[in-house]
Amino acid sequence: MGLLSTRNGSRTTVTARGDTLLAMSIASVVQFEKMTAADVFGLLGALNAYAVEQAVERASDEDIAKLRVAAERAGDMTDVELGSAALLHFFVTLSEVSHNPLLAALCRFITQVQIGLSVELSKGNTKEWGRVPQSLHKARMDIVDTIARRDAAAAIHLIRDYHRKVIKRLQSSPGAKTLRETDPGLTTVLSSWLGTNVGLSNSFR
Q1: Of 4, 111, 141, 160, which has the fewest CB atoms closer than 10 Å, so is most exposed?
Q2: pTM (2 decimals)?
Q3: How far is Cα 87 from Cα 8, in angstroms, rounded to an integer?
C-alpha cells in the first residue's frame, strides 16, 4: 500500500504522508458504504461551516487578506484547469485560516473530490464548468467579508447556502443528467473517480 519502507539491514520507516492516509481512509469508507455525492458534499458543507466559525475567531488580518486574494483569483473560470486550481486554492486557504490542522486536512481532500467530480460531470464543456463556480463568485467574496467583520453567524449561513447551491447545480450538470436513471445518487461515478484518483501506492493526485 506504499505506507512503509523496508530494507535489509535497516529499520522499517513510515513513508506515507498524512494527506495520503486520510485520502485512502475517506475514499475507502465512501466506496464501501456506497455513499452518494450529496452525502459526501453535504459533509463538506458542515466542515466548511465550522471552518468559517473558527476563522472568525482565529484568523489574523494577514490570513483574511490572503483569503481575499484567493477569492478574487477564483473569479475567472474561463479555463477549466486554472479555474479549478484557483477554486481549490480558495477553499484550502479558507480551511487553513481556521488554524485547525485536522479540519483543514478533511476539507482539503473532500474539496478536491467535489471539484474533480464537478469537472468530470461537466464533460469538458468549459462554458458549463465555468457557469457553476463563477456565478457564485460574489458569494465567496461575501464569505470573506463576513469573516473580516468577525460575524460568525452570517459566515456560517453564507457557506451553508453556497454548498446547497453547488450540490444542486452539480446534480443538474450534463453528466449528472445523463447518469440520473442508472446512478441517481452519483454513487458509481463517485466511487470510480476515487478509484482512479486515490491510488494505493500513490499520493492523492
Answers
A1: 4
A2: 0.84
A3: 45
